[in-house]
Design brief:
six-stranded mixed beta sheet; aldehyde dehydrogenase (NAD+) activity; 22 strands; single chain; alpha/beta; Ald_DH_N; 489 residues; Ald_DH_CS_CYS; Aldehyde Dehydrogenase, Chain A, domain 1; oxidoreductase
Length: 489
């Protein structure tokens, strides 16, 4: 395994910043310290904001032609490519992610997403005719009406621990290619890998102030970044609880807020696709240890075949190897912290107290005395009111529920405060699509899944506001201006 990234400082408006206070980044696989990183002093976070404001208002980036911005961002991503080995090693160490997942799903998919986003932006029209009835134009004395999509301004990007690189790419690249200035604040649990964004900005020659990367152990900087009047937009991925706080903090200055929050997604198996359930269950926990907001942790199967599914899924989970992320045989590593492991244990207890049964797993795996490991766990739940079916656990725990018919399956799936993602499996594709259309969720995968710069994702209900990726994800970082033009009378 390569050495981890050596940088320990923040990158503020084109300069590397030392901090008087340091905090330790922990390896969740063995509870050792990965490194000490210097926290960004609060005055330097404020300087990042004011310099982002200056750089945007002066147009040093926003006024460049899109093709020129794309060229600079291409060099920015080339730097990432050159840092692959160190970046993957860092993600493995600070997030406890298996090496293959860090390399493919974070680094590879993140880089591909970023390059695709640039191509998508360049293919879109950012000035377009606005259809106005001729009579309205004549009455106004106007000869032209059109819409212009312009950058929002200064953007705060706050990213989670479970996808530090790929989630940052989903925010930073569309924001920058659209002409915004950005301040990235990664999770305090996994800040090291995000420092590479500062190195990439420096290597590519981004103008000072256009991109800053600030790190902290607490939340004082994040609060400043979500309340400061010079910030125009906050883009956040994380828990619904914190998302609500950000909405409240942004409200007094009426900032635009984009939120990708929690999920309690359902995977629905039509009677002709029950044989696919085992693979779907394994996908929930493999590689991520269930720490994915889109994880389909509620499995809905025909009631009369529930016991069959429970048996098959339990045998598959029992066969999964839990272990250090550097072990090639390990299919899932640790959860991020002791607190997250405790949360898994608490919800297993709550499930049992409310009539559920632990079919397999439910505790800490034997032989792993250090590290925040939790067994892949299958819960047999009597109904969707069970706390394990209603709350996001964010660990390797799946709940199996039975449905009477497809109407009942849709009812159960929609009986949730969340609506981030969903899955429907059926050999009768028309029937499966019919179910998918009825789900109240931002994305539904029918018999497959697509992750692309061109395909949007986001939540209904408590799962968020706005969209990331796709044309909608680019428009999220743009304002719409209407121009009406006529001759002087």
């Amino acid at each position: 395994m390569a050495a981890i990234i050596a940088e320990r400082r923040s990158y503020v408006a084109g300069t590397w910043v030392e901090g008087d206070e340091v905090f330790a980044v922990e390896n969740p696989a063995d509870e050792t310290s990965v490194a000490d990183v210097a926290a960004t002093p609060l005055p330097e976070i404020e300087r990042a904001i004011t310099e982002a404001r200056r750089s945007f208002d002066e147009g040093v980036w926003a006024d460049r032609p899109p093709a020129e911005r794309a060229k600079v961002l291409g060099a920015f991503l080339d730097y990432f490519q050159s840092a692959r080995a160190e970046l993957v090693a860092t993600m493995v160490a600070e997030a406890g992610q298996p090496t293959g997942f860090a390399e493919r799903a974070q680094f590879g998919a993140g880089l591909g997403l970023a390059r695709g986003t640039i191509d998508l932006y360049l293919s879109m029209s950012h000035e377009e005719a606005n259809p106005v009835p001729l009579d309205d134009l004549v009455r106004a004395g106007a000869s032209l009406s059109f819409r212009r999509h312009e950058p929002v301004g200064v953007v705060t990007a706050i990213t989670p621990y479970n996808g530090a690189i790929i989630m940052a790419m989903q925010k930073i690249i569309p924001a920058l290619i659209a002409g915004n200035s950005v301040i990235l604040r990664p999770s305090p649990l996994t800040p090291l890998s995000s420092l590479v964004f500062g190195a990439a900005a420096e290597a590519a020659g981004l103008p000072p102030g256009v991109l800053s990367v600030v790190v902290e152990a607490g939340a004082a900087g994040a609060e400043l970044l979500t309340t400061h009047r010079a910030v125009d937009m906050v883009s956040f991925t994380g828990s619904t609880v914190v998302g609500r706080q950000i909405l409240a903090q942004a409200a007094p200055t009426v900032k635009r807020v984009a939120l990708e929050l929690g999920g309690k997604s359902a995977q629905i198996y039509l009677p002709d696709a029950v044989g696919r359930a085992t693979a779907g269950a394994v996908a929930v926990v493999a590689a991520t240890a269930g720490q994915a907001c889109v994880a389909a942790t509620r499995m809905l199967v025909p009631r009369e075949r529930k016991d069959e599914v429970l048996d098959a899924v339990s045998r598959a989970y029992d066969a999964l190897t839990v272990g250090p992320p550097t072990d090639p045989s390990a299919k899932l590593g640790p959860v991020i912290s002791a607190g997250q492991r405790d949360r898994c244990e608490r919800f297993v207890r709550l499930a049992e107290e409310n009539g559920g049964k632990v079919v397999t797993g439910g505790g800490r795996p034997a032989g792993l005395e250090r590290g925040y490991y939790f067994e892949p766990t299958v819960l047999d739940l009597p109904d969707n009111a069970n706390p394990a079916a209603q709350e996001e656990i964010f660990g390797p725990v799946i709940s199996v529920l039975g449905y009477r018919d497809l109407d009942d399956a849709v009812r159960i799936a929609n009986d949730s405060d969340y609506g981030l993602s969903g899955q429907v499996y059926g050999a009768d594709v028309a029937a499966a699509v019919g179910v998918a259309r009825r789900l109240r969720t931002g994305a539904v995968n029918v018999n497959t899944a697509v992750f692309s710069a061109y395909a949007p994702g986001g939540g209904y209900k408590h799962s968020g506001l706005g969209r990331e990726r796709g044309p909608d994800g680019i428009r999220a970082f743009q304002e719409v201006k209407h121009l009406a033009i006529g001759e002087l009378r």
